[in-house]
Amino acid sequence: MSYKCSRCKRDVELDEYGGVRCPYCGHRVLLKERGGGIKEVDVK
Amino acid sequence: MAHDFDVEFIERGDRKARFLVRGLTPAIANGIRRAMIADVPTLSIDSVRFVENSSVMFDEMIALRLGLVPLTTSLDDFEEGDEVTLALDVEGPATAYSGDMVSSVEYVQPADENIPIIELKEGQHLEFEADAVLDSGKSHAKHQGGVAVGYRHLQKVEVVGDTPEFDDGEPNILRGVIETEDGELIHTDEFGNDLTQQFPGKEVEVSDVPGAFVFHVETDGSFTVEELVLRAVESLGLRAAELEEKVSV
């Protein structure tokens, strides 16, 4: 799963041992990246 | 059974009207009201393909907002189930409005151009394609063309005498449209809904006029009030004809 650090804006890959933390700046707030595909939503 | 209907407009606009119909039964009046709400189809966004959405709201929440944007609907050109595609591409900092949507059909446009969809900050981007489908209010409230449809009895106001000399002067509140003894139709808003303002010092008696109903109709902008009423009445007629045909077989 790819994330983006909300402070340094770099792409971050998380693994199960590293915890939720940016390996470059140490910031703990990561934003999930949107997938590349088109998402279809029904309006119901 | 032949009916002589008599229709008189009290207030007439494209989106809002008030009119009096004489010669109706309560059942037919309610049938027309229900047909205006549930039977007259409108175009409404039914599915959205999100290419990009980096706004603060989820795709599903934006899609629900889009479903409630009224679209101008030409009922002569579409049948139920027909689709029209609309697209939007806005980058922040900006607010994405309904008017930013570009339609594949020139005469299908958002009825109001200034409905905010989402406020986008610097670096946020919203891009989607949406399919609008023609359907009726029976299937979903977003397809209701008539948004405020109701009726009241016409009320006749008769002066029966003078108020007593030491009357405490309490207001006599009444809402709707009244018919005076001269046959004049007045909406009670004009005199603050207080009969003592319109008939000062007089004692009045209010009674419903049988078979006379005042309709108040507002549309969401998909079409005019006239079109909504005519289509509703037409749908009632078609249903009655269908019933007649089925019974006679």
UniProtKB/TrEMBL annotation, chain A:
What does the note under cofactor report?
Binds 1 zinc ion.
The coenzyme or cofactor needed here is: Zn(2+)
Listed under GO biological process in this entry are: DNA-templated transcription
Q: Where in the cell is it found?
A: Cytoplasm
Record keywords, A-Z: Cytoplasm, DNA-directed RNA polymerase, Metal-binding, Nucleotidyltransferase, Transcription, Transferase, Zinc
Key word Zinc present in the record?
Answer: yes
Instruction: Quote the record's binding site residues for Zn(2+).
Output: C8, C22, C25
One cellular component (GO) term of this entry: cytoplasm
Q: How does it assemble?
A: Part of the RNA polymerase complex.
Q: What is this protein called?
A: DNA-directed RNA polymerase subunit Rpo12
Q: What's the source species for this entry?
A: Halogranum salarium B-1
Automatic annotation (TrEMBL), chain B:
Gene from which the chain derives: rpo3
Record's signal peptide: none
Q: Which InterPro entries match?
A: DNA-dir_RNA_pol_30-40kDasu_CS (IPR001514), DNA-dir_RNA_pol_insert (IPR011262), DNA-dir_RNA_pol_RpoA/D/Rpb3 (IPR011263), RBP11-like (IPR036603), RNAP_Rpo3/Rpb3/RPAC1 (IPR022842), RNApol_insert_sf (IPR036643), Rpo3/RPB3_RNA_Pol_subunit (IPR050518)
**Reactions it catalyzes:** RNA(n) + a ribonucleoside 5'-triphosphate = RNA(n+1) + diphosphate
Can you give the residue ranges of the DNA-directed RNA polymerase RpoA/D/Rpb3-type domain?
A: 16-246
Describe the subunit structure: Part of the RNA polymerase complex.
Protein name, entry field: DNA-directed RNA polymerase subunit Rpo3
Keywords in alphabetical order, please: Cytoplasm, DNA-directed RNA polymerase, Nucleotidyltransferase, Transcription, Transferase
Any GO CC annotation of this UniProt entry: cytoplasm
Q: Which organism is it from?
A: Halogranum rubrum
